[in-house]
Amino acid sequence: MMDNLSSATEFCLLGFPGSQELHYILFAIFFFFYSVTLLGNMVIIIIVCVDKRLQSPMYFFLGNLSLLEILVTTTIVPLMLWGLLLPGKQTISLNGCIAQLFLYLALGTTEFAVLGAMAVDRYVAVCNPLRYSVIMNSRTCIWVVMVSWMFGFLSEIWPVYATFQFTFCKSNLLDHFYCDRGQLLKLSCNETFLTEFILFIMAIFIIVGSLIPTIVSYTYIISTILKIPSASGRKKAFSTCASHFTFVVIGYGTCLFLYVKPKQTQAAEYNRVASLLVSVVTPFLNPFIFTLRNDKVKEALRDGVKRCCLLLRD
């Protein structure tokens, strides 16, 4: 517990409730998820870089998305695993808390921007195929990704700064497995209503703002696909968008529930479940979504495995 006249200089993350046996089981599950996330997304990045068949805007964006998934989950999961393995040792300094929250939010915002760019890319590919190579040239793709990263990191400077301007004097016990903003605000002795409202407006702008081009793009895409006369043509056109669309539904659905709410200080159980979906489950699913539903990626993976087997034989 803390002195009511001072602010916390470090936080103790309470993590998950339950017995130590349950913590060991959760450690095994989340360690498996984290390992597969790192391996799967790294494989996607490597094959996108080395396979000439995947040298296109769609896979360039996919490589960036996989990199973001690795970074997002690495920002959260190692500390969470440490807390599950060694209960009572999951402490984080104030500066570490600031860095973790900033990186988590900035990388997440960048991911939304990249997903919006991927939706526009699919729109051009399906609705304007003859102009695709002209519109989505390499310079445009690099510029879009650079702007996405800059937007993600610059847009989260004020929200994180505003969060840590409060005095956290109620306690230094944070009822979460990472430095969650909502749980931090619960520890503040200051009035947080105005800041929470501004953060709510910013969340709407960032999440819903990046969702609008996705909705508009897929409205045109579906309309165009339905006009294709042959069933095989419709199936082929939709298969180029299915992976991205699936990921959008999972990613946006979770974050809308987690961040687009006027009151940031939700129940800890609610935040834990939603945060697990964002930081553990979605990055874990990303390689499966984009490999199991994409013939080119599966073909590139098969060829890569064959080449590795031949090298090992030699």
Topology of helices and strands:
Elements: E1 10-13, H1 20-50, H2 57-85, E2 91-93, H3 94-127, H4 132-135, H5 138-155, H6 157-163, E3 173-174, H7 181-186, H8 193-226, H9 231-259, H10 268-292, H11 295-313
Parallel strand pairs: 1-3
Antiparallel strand pairs: 1-2
Helix pairs in contact: 1-2, 1-10, 2-3, 2-10, 3-5, 3-8, 3-9, 8-9, 9-10
GO molecular function, one term: G protein-coupled receptor activity
Keywords: Cell membrane, G-protein coupled receptor, Membrane, Olfaction, Receptor, Sensory transduction, Transducer, Transmembrane, Transmembrane helix
Protein name: Olfactory receptor
Characterization of the model:
The structure is a single chain. The chain is mostly helical and 314 residues long. It has a single domain, classed as Rhopdopsin 7-helix transmembrane proteins. It is 75% helix and 3% strand. The protein has a three-stranded mixed sheet with strand order 2-1-3. α2 (57-85) packs across α10 (268-292), α3 packs antiparallel against α9 and α8 (193-226) packs antiparallel against α9.
Radius of gyration: 21 Å
CATH superfamily label: Rhodopsin 7-helix transmembrane proteins
Low-confidence stretches: 1-5
- How many discrete structural domains? 1
The gross shape turns out to be globular
Sum up the structure in keywords.
single chain; 314 residues; mainly alpha; Rhopdopsin 7-helix transmembrane proteins; 3 strands; 75% helix; sensory transduction; Olfactory receptor; olfaction; GPCR_Rhodpsn
